[in-house]
Write a structure and sequence with these properties.
α1 crosses α2. With about 150 residues, the chain is α/β, with parallel strands linked by helices. The chain has helices at about 10-20, 40-55, 85-90, 95-100, and strands at about 1-10, 30-35, 65-70, 75-80, 105-110, 120-130, 140-145. β3 and β4 form a beta hairpin. It contains 4 helices and 7 strands. The mean pLDDT is about 90. The chain has a single domain (about 1-145), classed as Rossmann fold (3-Layer(aba) Sandwich). Strands 1-7-6-2-5-4-3 form a 7-stranded mixed β-sheet, covered by helices on one side.
Length: about 150
């Protein structure tokens, strides 16, 4: 694991801007996994990434649809696995075709699939301290990770 950035943001606008700046790290085939509790800013960060990549589509969380595809070159795939109960549900979607194709995959709630992702990925860890004086303060850690083998359990 290589730490790329540790940063605090104090507003929605700062979180969007960080996502937009981070988008310059991405290329076709990139996989980005976003971790954090409800309300931690994952979708806001993804809006910034999508803006930075140039999509004009409306970016919303695909909580009930599981995936939103945004028109762009390369295409952007925005996943939300919050409601997924088993890995088999993901493979019914054709997940491998999305993750290992030429698009950019942005995954909210990746815990169920993280050990299955082969190759390089970025991880965005977002923490929101509800006790903070800043209602919109977020602690954001961006890392680059490598997994060469699929989980065989």
């Amino acid at each position: 694991m290589k730490t790329l950035l540790k940063k605090k943001t104090y507003s929605t606008e700062e979180t969007l801007a960080l996502g937009k700046t981070f988008s310059s790290e991405l290329a076709p085939g990139s996989i980005v996994c976003l971790f954090g509790k409800l309300g931690s800013g994952k979708t806001t960060f993804i809006r910034g990434v999508c803006e930075g990549l140039g999509t004009k589509d409306l970016v919303t969380s695909p909580t009930f649809t599981l995936i939103n595809e945004y028109r762009n070159s390369p295409p952007i795939y925005h996943f939300d696995f919050y409601r997924i109960q088993s890995e088999s549900e993901l493979y019914e979607l054709g997940l491998d075709e999305y993750l290992y194709g030429e698009g950019i995959s942005l995954i909210e709630w990746p815990e169920i699939i993280i050990k299955e992702i082969i190759g390089q990925r970025f991880e965005i860890h977002m923490k929101w301290d509800i006790e903070s004086d800043w209602e919109t303060e977020r602690n954001i850690l961006i890392t680059q990770n490598q997994n060469n083998l699929r989980n065989t359990n």
